[in-house]
Amino acid sequence: MLGQVSDKNAFLSELSAAEFGALRNHLAPLELRVGQCLHYLGDPVEEVVFPNSGLIAITMPLRDNPGAAAALVGRDGIVGAFPALATAPAAADAVVLIGGQASRLSAAAFRYVLDQNPSIRRRVARYDYAMIVQSQQTALCHAVHPVESRICRWLLAIQGRCAGDRVPLTQSTLAQMLGVRRTTVTLVAGRLEATGVLKCHRGYMQIVNQAELERRSCECHVLFNGYLNKLLAYPGETAPAPEVRPEQPGLRVV
Amino acid sequence: MPLYTFELRDGSRSIADTVGVNFADRDLALCYAYEVVRELMGCRERQTRTWRLDVYEDHDRRVFEIPFARLDETLDYLAPHWRSRIEDLCDRSRALHETYNAARITMHESRALIARSRGRPYLATEGGRSIIRENEEEDSSRVGRVGRAAAKI
Asked: Can you give the pTM of this predicted structure?
């Protein structure tokens, strides 16, 4: 299916011409609207989404409250790849926090293309692995880091995916992502504003002092970004088949 | 339903949540405030032990004062009388810092006013806001706060 497809998504951008050609005919444009849920926990994943802009939160909902975000996906990632490939129900909600544009293809087409193209499959596996690493880092962060450091980390993570010094989220949304009360975020944001790190406006926050925000953030931001850069730069060639030595008489490994 | 707003006092400044939250009664507001304190304090109890969260009803009456030390679970191992002393010490420490900061700001403001009276431009700010009091309300509010903080020391 042909459409107006943007190749600004990082995964799509790094595909070779041949690899992108295998996907292109199946891609269609998608507008991401704030509040839109791309898939719900437990539901089958019908589409795989490649964001070109905007921000999606992978959130773990609870019975009595919205839960918290386990990972963020912007133009640097893929939404729904793993459950679509595994034909498994979604393990979390995928909620659009910041609107934008994306490309999408059906789960069936995605599986077909990956079956035909092992090189694309390996790249997708890396991006899925990056999501797992991000979720692990977030779990650790929630357990051991104070809320102020965590808020700084999320602000940096969002800003890194949106570009510019504006974080177009309300304090209420940020509180939901972190699984804390809105008052907590307001008071922390107030402290950051009083020390000249942020400027709080209605509907968005503006980062005034990036260096100070990084200093106040926990180490999770740097750790995850460092690992991500390493993962995506890792040589992706297929390893040669291991050499099989003929068995030597008298030499037996027990 | 009454609107409950919150003010965090950390010794160097006070930060307010003026938007607030509506609760049916004070008990619910207190439970919410306790959760906010725990979230702010989590994983940095030593650094935040001297803080205090004040709860106001309808922007008017202060109905609760919640010292962070009271909810600090890392102090649970202490005998009650030692714990009480630690909590009192934290309260006095915050009051001392508040008094010191209020005096510092007053001195800064005084220098600004003297400079202005001599026709010299002088900008006195704290946290991005002018600290030169423009009206009697701000004047009495700061004087009152300094007085109450000094009384606790």
From this structure: 0.84
